[in-house]
Design goal:
Keywords: Cell outer membrane, Ion transport, Iron, Iron transport, Membrane, Receptor, Signal, TonB box, Transmembrane, Transmembrane beta strand, Transport. It comes from Arthrospiribacter ruber. One of its GO terms (cellular component) is cell outer membrane. This is TonB-dependent receptor. 4% of the residues lie in helices and 54% in strands. With 811 residues, it is mostly beta strands. The chain folds into two domains: 2-102, Immunoglobulin-like; 230-456 and 517-810, Maltoporin, Chain A. The chain starts with a helix and ends with a strand. It is globular and about 100 Å long. The strands form nine sheets. It has a 22-stranded antiparallel barrel. A five-stranded mixed beta sheet has the order 10-16-17-14-15.
């Protein structure tokens, strides 16, 4: 392996050809700089992108004459004949004319900008709209920030957005105080397995639509919806190779190739490949990740565009259920066990495979009328063998808890799920006098299937006296039902885990007594019809939308006792944006959410319980959005209130640790602030802050009412600033500093609180020619902290101090 990378490194160093240089700027018709404009020498793969001041420097092979193509999103492209002999350094200026119809209605071709700022969202209104003009808060993180922070999973990204923190180390988050695990890919419903965070190697950006988004995407979570936007092909050649290594024996390799496949540039491609092998600061919790993600764009005419993505990802590791600490009593020391402690056996495993494909079509019938169709097919597969806590401590012969011994269970499970989402809509632009309309009408179909063939094998509890099986809990008043050891304590079916003297061995599966059960097959489908109008008059823009949903849930799908449950919901969304001046907009919005909670959504009733009432929510929000420093920096401030009803929480049932229960109502009120972009061409910046008070307002447990919700901090925020030197002997050297903080949080145990924390990070960069070397340092002060937690059995510690070094070659 080392020899391979040495040879690769030497090969990439061979840059031996004579070159000339063009320097200049790309401006719009108002003589303002265009950031992220692409300049490409026709017939070659030589090109560059303008910086935050619209400036560029392009090296090229000497020629008597070249044709330079200059393009940018929202502008008419220009092709310019250039004679290198007549160039004056720094005097070359290109002016592009705006073309409002060049902004693609769906995200077909790639984003050319190269900064922390993102201007356009395709998910905020279903069509391409400047984020500034959307009447709802949308936070985002671009691939440039992910690369600078070396954020390999979505869990490492969310700290850059206000009001979002990890709920656990699984694929779930707290958004504005509410737990969320419902995610989209390119605005379409994603499937996936809950236990592993997805990797980011193929992502252009991650954006979060704050608050209920059911009017756009049917059943979504009330706090917000995470949308993962994949990288799309570009019409100029770009290639990147990257190798990383660092703490926890981490090795990563990634490549990103894109460009045209023919001279006419009607067929474009992009290929992202990533591989990671890493251990962890958590015992026996190393994992291997692999992703292959090709993407193709076909542009048969200036009226039609088609994009196809195929993504396969695989994770091999173990399921980390979190850190247990000593017995459940007030004042228990969080440091009673080390943060490295994870309950696992050597032969435990978690194998997750995800495969999805998306296809998108945009066709313009006229410049004012277009059809947009998108479809995703998602397959997720889980193969699991784990030892985990049974959510209770061991019991002695009198029924007392033994605070250093964890009750254990083991699970062997195999399951698949399939998700389909079709979205089709027409957009027509017209005017009635001075009022302009962008009218959208469409249909969505969503289907999720848990097919026959899923099964579980479970062992736990205490052995029966007659040896016929096990009982989940120990009842000291029924001692005759149990077997006892020489000390008079009940004998566990799966040996207890000793927190004071942990041992990590190969399991004795053949000695356990198991219960085998099939997972209940289920299917749900959603048919949604919606209409939306964006109405513009002078400085005011109104957004009016209405969606009618029809939900069908099939329990026992495909069996002789198949049961159908239907529901319907009418979901409105209202919003307004007013331009206070050229840079700042004020906005307000009202939206509702609706989410059925049947077997097709939640899973097998035998495991999770039910039936449950639907989750309903509503939000009111107002705020300001602005662009500053020549539109290089984007900022949003939002004030909101969200209420939701019929929330699912863990029932804390020792006999079934996955059983869910329903809580009456919760409410969140808060204020948020986000900014992202560039202050100067050298200084890139993101910052965020959220104050959020999320409380329980209705519950069967009266002691809960008025309490702060679980894993919902009052304060959360962070920043990241990067400065790059562009002149002098230190040209190409960059430094970044950042940090994030989260205040104390409640857990599902009323006597356990997670402490607040602040984690500081830093990075160094050096760019020379086409190489970039970087080192990222995380948790500089080695702050012990917990990103989330359930109770004494499952806490999720954050990483201690670590580093990651990367060498990248871009050509």
């Amino acid at each position: 392996m080392k020899l391979f990378f040495t040879l690769l490194f030497c090969l990439l160093l061979q840059t031996v050809y004579s070159q000339s240089v063009i320097q200049g700027a790309v401006l719009n018709q108002d003589q303002q700089p265009i950031v992220g404009a692409t300049l490409l020498i026709t017939g070659t793969n030589q090109g560059t992108v303008t910086d935050v001041e619209g400036k560029f420097s392009l090296s090229f092979n000497r020629s008597s004459n070249i044709v330079l193509r200059v393009s940018a999103i929202g502008y008419v492209a220009e092709s310019i004949n250039v004679d290198p002999a007549n160039l004056v350094t720094g005097s070359f200026t290109v002016t592009l004319q705006e073309d409002e119809y060049r902004l693609q209605a769906v995200e077909i071709t790639g984003r050319r900008e190269d900064s922390y700022k993102n201007d356009v969202s395709f998910s905020g209104t279903k069509v391409a709209s400047p984020i500034k003009d959307i009447p709802q808060s949308i936070s985002f993180v671009t691939k440039e920030l992910m690369v600078d922070q070396q954020a390999f999973t979505t869990g490492e990204v969310v700290k850059n957005m206000s009001g979002i923190n990890q709920f656990s180390s699984y694929d779930d988050f707290t958004l504005r105080g509410f737990r969320s695990s419902n995610q989209l890919i390119n605005g379409l419903r994603a499937g996936g397995i809950f236990w592993a965070l997805p990797i980011t190697a193929n992502l252009e950006r991650i954006e979060v639509i704050k608050g209920p988004a059911s009017a756009l995407f049917a059943n979504t979570d009330p706090g917000g919806t995470i949308n993962r936007v994949t990288k799309k092909p570009l019409d100029e050649s770009r290639k990147s190779l990257q190798f990383s290594t660092g703490s926890f024996n981490t090795y990563r390799v990634a490549l990103d190739f894109t460009g045209p496949m023919n001279e006419e540039k009607t067929l474009l491609y992009r290929l992202n490949v990533a591989y990671q092998d890493t251990e962890s600061f958590r015992t026996l919790q190393g994992r291997t990740d692999m992703m292959v993600a090709p993407s193709f764009t076909f542009l048969p005419s200036d009226k039609t565009a088609i994009n196809f993505d195929l993504v396969y990802s695989a994770t091999r590791g173990k399921l980390d259920r979190g850190q247990p600490i000593f017995g459940a009593s007030a004042g228990t020391d969080l440091f009673s066990t080390p943060i490295s402690l994870a309950i696992a056996y050597v032969d435990d495993y978690l194998n997750i495979d995800n495969l999805f494909s998306t296809i998108s079509l945009q066709h313009k019938f006229t410049e004012k009328t277009s059809l947009n169709v998108s479809y995703i097919k998602y397959l997720a597969q889980e193969d699991l063998q784990e030892h985990r806590t049974s959510n209770q401590f061991a019991r002695d012969g009198d029924g007392n808890e033994i605070p250093t011994l964890m009750g254990m269970s083991t699970i062997r499970r195999f399951q698949r799920n399939y998700t389909d989402n079709l979205s089709a809509y027409l957009v027509h632009e017209f005017a009635t006098g001075k009022i302009r309309h962008k009218l959208l009408g469409g249909y969505d179909y969503i289907q999720r299937v848990l097919p026959v063939g899923g099964a579980t094998q479970n062992a736990g509890g205490y052995l029966r006296a007659d040896g016929s099986g096990f009982i989940n809990t120990f009842n000291p008043y029924n001692r005759d039902a149990y077997q006892f050891d020489q000390n008079g304590n009940p004998i566990p079916n799966v040996p207890h885990f000793n927190l004071a003297n942990p041992r990590f061995t190969i399991s004795n599966y053949e000695n356990y007594l198991f219960i085998n059960n099939p997972l209940t097959a289920a299917k749900y489908s959603v048919n949604g019809f919606y209409i939306q109008d964006q109405i513009e008059y002078n400085k005011l823009t109104l957004l009016l939308s209405l969606r009618q949903e029809f939900y069908t849930d099939l329990l026992g799908f495909g069996g002789s006792e198949e049961e159908e449950v239907t529901q319907a919901a009418l979901i409105p969304r209202l919003g307004a944006v007013y331009a206070l001046n050229k840079n700042i907009n004020a906005y307000a919005t009202y939206s509702q959410g609706y989410q059925p909670q049947g077997a097709g959504f939640i899973g097998s009733p035998e495991v999770f319980g039910g039936p449950f009432d639907p989750l309903t929510s509503r939000m009111g929000e107002t705020g300001f959005k602005g662009e500053f420093f020549n539109r290089r920096l984007f900022a949003t401030t939002a004030i909101y209130q969200i209420t939701q009803n019929n929330i699912l929480i863990n029932a804390n049932n020792p006999e079934n640790p996955d059983l869910l229960a329903q809580r009456g109502q919760e409410r969140a009120r808060g204020i948020e602030f986000d900014l992202a972009g560039n202050i100067t061409k050298n200084l890139s910046l993101t910052a965020n802050y959220a104050y959020n008070r999320a409380i329980i307002t209705e519950s069967d447990n009266e002691q809960e009412i008025g309490e702060i919700k679980e894993n919902a901090p009052l304060h959360q925020g962070g920043f990241w600033a990067k400065y790059v030197l562009t002149e002098g002997n230190l040209n190409g050297l960059g430094i970044a500093l950042g940090g994030n903080f989260v205040s104390s949080r409640n857990t599902f145990s009323p006597i356990l609180t997670l402490p607040s924390y602040f984690v500081a990070d830093a990075a160094l960069y050096y760019t020379v020619d086409k190489f970039r070397v970087s080192v990222n340092f995380r948790n500089l002060a080695n702050q012990v902290h917990w990103v989330g937690g359930y109770d004494f059995n499952r806490l999720f510690p954050g990483e201690p101090r670590n580093f990651l070094a990367t060498v990248a070659y871009n050509f």
